[in-house]
Input
Amino acid sequence: MKILVRPSAETDIPAIAAIYAHAVLHGTASFELDPPAEAEIARRRAAILESGYPYLVAERDGEILGYAYAGAYRTRPAYRSTVEDSIYVAPSAQGQGIGRILLSALIEECAARDFRLMVAVIGDEESKGSIALHRSLGFEPVGILKGIGYKHGRWLSTVLMQRALGSGMAEPPTRPIV
Output
């Protein structure tokens, strides 16, 4: 069956919360230790959308397989053209290319909104799949923050990667300062 990538809806929040809860409890993509409640997921999603960033879901036959969104890399005005990506895939959908589909759509959507740089902050140097996915879509490694977080009984590093969007750094930003 065909996978549909679309803007997230309020009705997707239970599925998004379940996917994220699994990632928090069992993975290292997020450095949160306790999964947030659905109301907190809804609040976070609303804040992303209200700030003009995309929040997408991948769906097949009515089932949410994963989600991705972009948010501010940092909040100071000089960073206004830079976004950070977040991608989470349901455990039952992993290894099916859902992450690639979501990240590709997110890159396209962010470029259409005239963001110029996307940063990936990948939890854990051992996240080989996420690192390979980002590299395959044009991200370059720019650094590793060693032992920056402690989760699941071990110190975790963060891998930083980035890629240009649209005209990248060839021209000054056009996004307004808010």
